[in-house]
What we know:
Layout: H1 18-32, E1 36-39, H2 52-64, E2 68-73, H3 77-85, E3 90-93, H4 107-116, E4 122-123, H5 130-138, E5 143-144, H6 147-151, H7 156-176
Parallel strand pairs: 1-2, 2-3, 4-5
Amino acid sequence: LKPERFTFLPNTAGCFTGEDAVRTLRLAREAGGWGLVKLEVLSNSAHLYPDMVETLRALDLLVKDGFDVMVYCTDDVVMAKRLEDAGAAAVMPAASPIGSGLGIQNRVNIRLIVEQAKVPVLVDAGVGTASDATIAMELGCDAVIANTAIAAARDPILMGSAMKHAVIAGREAYLAGRMPKRMYADPSSPMAGLI
């Protein structure tokens, strides 16, 4: 690999304390000089949701150390704002548990996070197929993390291609603006002049 062709993103996946996460990212910076990092502080091994108290504490230390921190978080709207206010370079709310493939379980919260954010919002965790990625982008997210959805697919190469097209379709739909949802029918063809 030619390092200049890629952006490396050190990640604290597998860390269960803020101290371990901070130490891991400091070592990564010493090893490779990387300042853009992903902070992930897990709460337990059953559901792998983040421990938001530890995450916020670690974020504060990393920002003071000069890191640009992309933060894995719950889909809690208030906490996402606190992370941004504490200096997060991006917020990465979980759509559902890591590796579950359940897709976006709380569209309302993801949309509210997007609406309030002044930093990029990347849906992280739980994406299972291309339609999940499309929905995330239609909600206004800036990107989608789709690791297990691709790695665990029967044909990972084809799923990677599907994800690419899904993200493009979702983003274009978001930019185009969806039609309003209505309770009753509203004919789109003109009724005047019919025989």
